[in-house]
Structures are given as structure tokens and as C-alpha cells.
Amino acid sequence: MAITGIGSGLEINKIVSALVSADGAPKTAQLSRLENATTSKFTALGSFRSALSTFQSVLEKLNSADLYNARSATSGDSKVFSVTADSAASAGSYDLQVFNLAQTSKVALRGQANATDPVGTGTLTLSAGSTSIDVEIIEDNSSLSGIRDAINAKSADSGITATVVTDPNGAGGSRLVLSSNTAGTGNDISVAVTTDGSDTGDLSVLAYTPPATTDFEPTPSDPMDPLGPRVVSYARDANLSIDGLAISSTSNTISDAIDGVSITLKKAQSQEDIDAGSTISLSVGLDKSSVRTSLESFVDGYNAMMKSINSLTSVTPVGGDDGEPLAAALVGDASVRSLTAALRTEMGTVAKGDVRILADLGISTKSDGTLEIDSEKLDDALENKFESLSTFLAGDDGLMSRLNAKIEPYTKDDGILEKRTTSLQNTLSGIDDQRERLEARLASLETRLLAQFNAMDTLVAGLSSTSSFLASQLANLPGIAKES
Fold it and tell me: Domain of life, per the record (predicted)?
């Protein structure tokens, strides 16, 4: 940096810097105030729009006809069965008995002394209901473990899987246990064997045909043939009755017995209850609890929106009576005033029918502008005026649609708030441009002032030099008395 002020002794750089700062300070302060105010309003409008959009989602749910057509279903014993219902279900009650659940087939084939010893070679044909797979057994996979792996590798889509279970006491040997995921009577596992004439064992020992049964109980081990095959579980239909009508199902989820109702069986009733003819109730009714929950969400959503609006339009005193109050970014904002007034007007509009205003549902406005619920009055309305709720709340002329129509112009794309935030964004961009121009002007001013001060400094230096020369010459003139 050039050294200045040598001639005059002035700190020219500091003087110029102070002059430039003083010249730019008013505009800089103005731009900072404008930027802070614009940013605050930009952020506040974003919060305002977010609060409105959140409330709109609450309105959307209450404006859905499905909410008022929904059905609730109740099981008299959820440990025995659970139940759900859709809008196609008719209100009513039913008596159920659950005799047994649907179950799948599981069999333990003839035991072998050791899971790693070869059994034989050939082809196993495994069947369960309409499913059938062929598994080739060669010498490399002829042990129970190898056969298990070959079956599982082949049966990925068949629903038949294999495991090896070993009796630790040795009495039952090692067994290949086959399981099917296909439930329903007649879908028991069977195994057919085609041997290839090899001298390596006899694969036919794993052939299996399930015995006929009527009690579907597992078959016990034969004391005379402890290694013999046995049924672990039979494939079986679920059996129940609804209002005395016998029903069987290959699945424990039954959705075609009662229109719109899905029953999931969890366990059978005790034999004692079955013998006594004990039944379990199943009830289907209007899902009033969901409507109540949605109305509570409406009140909570409205109050949350108003809380957000109040915080954006509040004026907070600072420093007692003499302090300057602190105003939030949207104090006096026309958009906020207009919208809140429109919402309050709609909520106070009287409709026709048994439910005319929100107060008929026990929803009233408090002194601070928020809503509160009278639970007893809401329960009474849900019980006695339920059919009028959808007319009052939902549909094109319903309260929820009317409220949404007031909010939509503000929150939609290219709506009121988006246009305002775009304008504010343009203002912020303009502030950046003004700052750039101000910096350029101040840089030019600094250059000009430095040139002027440096010229002055050079002039002063020249004058000082001339003054010193003249003083020296005058001091040397004849007749000039010199101080001793």
C-alpha cells in the first residue's frame, strides 16, 4: 500500500476511510433495515402458509364421504378371533363358534440311523394338494442332509420345505420332516419314489402316503416300529359357525362369509365351550369413533393454526411503558386479517338440518378465538344426529369445503402467498443489486478522495520545501542579526 501523508503529516488513509464510511452509512443502514424487514416478512409468510396447509389436511379428512360410511367391527373375544369391516358391511350382530383353525400338513418320514449316511438315489415326487415337485437324488446328495438341501433348493415356489430332526436319545434316529404352507382338508403331503436301480441304499424307504383320518390328530409313534413315518399335523379346513350356519375355510382369514367383514381366526374355543354351545359375539356398526377423532383433530388443527397466526401478528411491550413495543412480522397484515375474518364468518354461518352450526356438535369459540369441545354434547350429537353430520361437514356445500375454499386462494401454487413471497424475494435480490452499486460508488469515491488528498499532500510538501528554502536564504542575508 502506498505511503501517504508524508508531506502534510496527515493520516490520509484513515481520513479517506472515515469519509467513505460516513458517505455510505445512511444507505447501508437503510438497506440493512429493508433486508431485515423483508426477510422477517418472507419467513413469516412461509410459516403462515405452512399453518394453513396443515389445517387444510384436517379439512380434507372431514370432507371425505368415506369417513361417515366407515364401519367398525368388534369381537367378543379377540383372543379367539379379530374382525374388521369396510363400508360394504351392514350394521348388525352375529354369534360365532370356532371349532378349529385351518392348519397345514407336516410329516416326519421314516427315520434313519444317521443324518449323514446315504439313503439311496432316484427321484422323489413331493405333493401337497395341487402342488407337486420332482427332486432328483444322486450319490452326492443321498444322505438326509443332502436330500433336505436338494428339496429346499428345488421347492422355493412350491411351499414345501424340508428339515432334519434328530432324536438326541437315538430312539427315533434322524428324520426328514416335510412341511407345507397350503392349509385345507385334502392338502396333505405325500411322497412317491422312483429308484434308479443303484446299489447305494434304497430311497423307497422315504415313500409316504398319508393315512385317512376323521379326527385330524397327529399319529403317535408305533412302539413296534419306532423309526416309522408319522403325521405331525394334518392339513385341515377351519370350521366355525355363524348364527348356527356351518362354515369351513382353507384359510384362517375369512372374508366371504359376511359382506364387508373380514374375520381372522386366532384359536379354537375350548372343548367345554363347544360342547356347551357357547358363542362369541361379532358386532358391526357405524365407525363413530373415527368421526369423533377427526372432529377433535379439526379443533386441534384450528387452534394450532390460530396460535401460529397470533404469534405472527403479536405486539410485545418492551421495557415497561416507556419502551418501544416489539411487533411481529405480520402485524396489521391485510392477508391475515382477511382470511381469519372469512374463516370465522363461515364457521358462524347457520346451515339447514339437525346440525346447523358447530355449537350443535359441542364445538364453541373461546374468548381468545380458539375452539373447545363439550364432550357430552359431542357424544349426544354422534349418537342422535350422526346421519346429519356428513351433510353439515362434507360435500361441496359442507363446512369443510367452504373453509377450504377460503384458504385455497392463499396456499395454492401461484396463489396470494406465493405471489407475495416471490415479490419479497425480488426485493431481496434488488437489495443485493443496490449493495453492489453502493460498493462500486464508494470505491470510486475512495479513489477520487485519495487522489485529491495525495495531490494536496504533494502541494503541501512542495510549499513546505519552498518555505524552508526561503527561510534559509533570508537567514543568510547581510545585516541579519543572528541570535547567539
Answer: Bacteria
